[in-house]
Amino acid sequence: MSGSEMNRREFMASGLVCAGGLAIGAPALAASYPSKPIRLVVAFAPGGATDTVARLVSPYLSEALGTPVIVENKPGANGAIANSAVKNAAPDGHTLLLSNSSFIVATPHGATDADVNPVTDLKHIVMFATGRLILLTSPALKDMSLEDIVAQSKADPRAFANAAPGIGSINELAFEMFQRAVGSQIITAQYAGTGPIMTDLLADRVNMTVAAEASAEPYLKEDSLGALCTFGAERSAFLPDVPSSRELGIEGLDDLMFWNGLHAPAGIPAEIVVQLEEAFARILENENLQQRLADMRLKTVLLQGEDFERRVQQDWDMFGKIYRQTHG
Predict the structure, then answer these.
(1) 312 CB-near residues (< 8 Å, 6+ apart)
(2) CATH number of the domain enclosing 140
(3) What is the C-alpha to C-alpha distance for residues 248 and 5, in angstroms, rounded to an integer?
(4) pLDDT digit string (tens) for 218-271?
(5) Per-residue pLDDT at 11
(6) Domain at 289, CATH number
(7) Are 24 and 62 in contact (CB under 8 A)?
(8) For the chain, which residues score pLDDT lower than 70?
(9) What's the pLDDT at 285?
(10) What is the DSSP string of 234-292?
(11) Which of 33, 122, 110, 49 minimizes the C-alpha distance to 312?
C-alpha cells in the first residue's frame, strides 16, 4: 500500500471517528445534564417584577432538575446585555434566560447597535406566564368615555398626552396599536421609568399610560386613577369592572399582552430542551407556584416547542410593524 493511500485511509478513518463523536456528543451531554449549577439570567435589576418572577421560579426549577439555579442580573441596554450574554454562552443548558417579552419581541426593534436578534439567536423553550395590559387614565379623564377622548384628540392633538417608559417598550407600542385601532391622535411623552409616570399621571401632568395589571391595580382599587380598558378579548379576573378592548369594539388587540418565558442559546441539544420542557410542565402543576404567580397578577400557561416559536415570531412581527409605523 502506498504512503498516500495509507494517509488517505487514515484521514477518512479519523473523519469517521470525529463524525461519530459529534453524533454521540449531544446525547451524552443530555444524559449527564445538568452537570453543574444553572445560571438564570434576567435583564432587570434585583427587585423588579421579572427578577421577582425568576427568584420565585428558580427553587422549583432547581428541585425539578436536581441542581442549584442561580439568578444572575444583567440589566441595561433594554435587555441587549442579557440577551447577548445568553446568546454567547455555551449551548449546554447551563445558561438560560428568563424573559419579559418586552425585551424579546419589542425593544430590540429600536436597538440598532445590538449584536443579537432574540428571535433567531436564542432557542425559545417555554412560555410559562402571561400578564394583562391596562390603559390607565389620569383623574381628569376618569369619567370620560372612549368616544369623547377620541373625538377631542382629533379636534386637538395636543389635548392629551400619553406616557411611556421608553421608545420601543411594549407599553409604548401597545398604545400606538390602540391609537391606530380607534383613530385617536395623542402624543406620547417618553419617561425613564414607570415611577415618574405614575407620579405625573396622578397629578394630571400626563393623561394616560399603558401599565401591567399588577402596577395598575392598586390605583384602581383606591379609585385614584381610571381605566379605559384591559387589552384582550375578555375582562381580567382580577379587575372584573374594567371592560376589555373587544367589549368596546376595538379590533386587533386580542393578543396584546406580555409574557414570561425561558430561553437558551441557539444550538442547545434537543434532548436538553425536552428535559427543560418537562421540568417546567411539572413545576407549573404546583398549586402553590400557580397562586404565587396569580398574586403577581400573572396567569400560568404552558406553551412550548413550535407553538412557542410561532408566538415569538408573531409578536416580533406585530411589534416590529407598529415600531416602524411609529418611528420610521
Answers:
(1) 104, 105, 118, 119, 124, 261
(2) 3.40.190.10
(3) 79
(4) 999 999 999 999 999 999 999 999 999 999 999 999 999 999 999 999 999 999
(5) 38
(6) 3.40.190.150
(7) no
(8) 1-30
(9) 97
(10) S--SS-TTSPBTTTTT--S-TT--EEEEEEEETT--HHHHHHHHHHHHHHTT-HHHHHH
(11) 122
Are the C-beta atoms of residues 63 and 242 closer than 8 Å to each other?
no
For residues 288 and 206, state if they share a domain.
no
Would residue 46 count as lying in a domain? yes
One-letter amino acid identity for 39? Answer: R
Cα distances from 229 to residues 146, 233, 249, 290, in angstroms, run 9, 11, 11, 25
Task: Provide the β-strand partners of residue 299.
Answer: 130
Which residues on neighbouring strands pair with residue 260, listed in sequence order? 100, 129
Q: What pLDDT does 161 receive?
A: 98
**What is the residue-averaged pLDDT of the chain?**
92
Q: Give the torsion sign (CA, 158, 164, 165, 168).
A: negative
- Write out pLDDT tens, residues 301-310: 999 999 999 9
Domain that holds residue 305: 33-131+259-327
Dist. CA 160–CA 17, nearest whole Å = 69
First to last CA, the chain: 69
Return the pLDDT at 31: 72
DSSP helix/strand/coil, 208: strand
Residue 73 lies in a domain: yes
Q: What is the full DSSP assignment across 20-64?
A: HHHHHHHHHHHHT---SPEEEEESS-TTSHHHHHHHHHHHHHHHH
* Closest residue by Cα to residue 103 from 164, 43, 53, 55: 43
Read off the C-alpha cell for 3.
Answer: 504512503
CA dist 252 and 319 (Å) reads: 13
